[in-house]
Amino acid sequence: MAELIDKFGRKINYLRISVTDRCNFRCIYCMPKEGIEWKPMSEILSYEEIALFVKVAAGLGIRKIKLTGGEPLVRKGVENLIEMLKSIDGIEEISLTTNGSLLKKYAKSLKEAGLDRITVSLDTLKAERFKFITRMGDLRDVLDGFEAIEDAGFKDTKINTVVMKGVNDDEILDLVEFALKVKCDIRFIEFMPTDIVKDWRRYFISISEIKRIIKDKYELEHSDKKTNGPSDYFKIDGGFVGFITPLSSAFCSVCNRIRLTSDGFILPCLGHPDRVGVREALKEENEIKISKLIKYAVEIKPKEHALLKEGIHSSMAAVGG
Ligand code: SAM
Ligand code: SF4
Q: Structural domain boundaries of the chain?
């Protein structure tokens, strides 16, 4: 079986695909309140183009796919894309990251289409605060979404929580308790600088501080659990809690991913401005060209991100955070 190895010896087997830059939320850490300028639909890859990209990428060594956005569930017919990707030789797992607001509507059809796993982003259990963080979301929809994914038969659901000083750092223990109750792993993520949030340092709280708060109540036992991402897992009271420290360089040494943006650019690194355009090659259905472009993107994948130096030059929604 083919493998994609970059020049630092990292095996690249994981592809995050942003299926849309659009979203029904405007989270304070991701978008300005007026939203971002959506890309015109004429520039957005069709599902057939995405599937062609994945077919070529799978031939090179990509094994796992994450569908993200923007909010992936606001794009119509994501189930059709999942079915298409599921049938591609070499693809072992398809998962999806969502803000959870539309799960009540789509959980069943996502399961039927063959989606393997779901990650739900949830930063607070307080309705008013949820409105403040997402600017337009309703917490009830997301809580209903957890029930819907359980009813649909999804297992191994994960929760992603961005912790922000003075916003939700007083809810860390409540969120752990909630995750244990709904039998999901919870991963705490450090706030990542973007060009959207100039004063990100105001919100930044380190993972070591978050761990300290959790250890006041729970015993944390280090675990060798590995998922597709850079999370460091600990056993906690019958469940798992993970920690993601994007600003540390250890994060980069285990990086196994590339990204495809909704408008057809391959991003070798989330925290670097380099991007490789693949839309023309996809329109031409030129598999040799697509293959060369993927190999080139892996070849120029930097050793480390430059998040602290450059921001990511865009919102997470546009690059598929
Ligand atoms: N809309 C979906 C969602 O919210 O899960 C998928 C896209 S969202 C860009 C993917 C993940 O990026 C979410 O878990 C979100 O919390 C995270 N994210 C966005 N901006 C971030 C930032 N500045 N720092 C850390 N995580 C961020
Ligand atoms: Fe939308 Fe997800 Fe960004 Fe929030 S984090 S604005 S839900 S894309």
A: 14-318
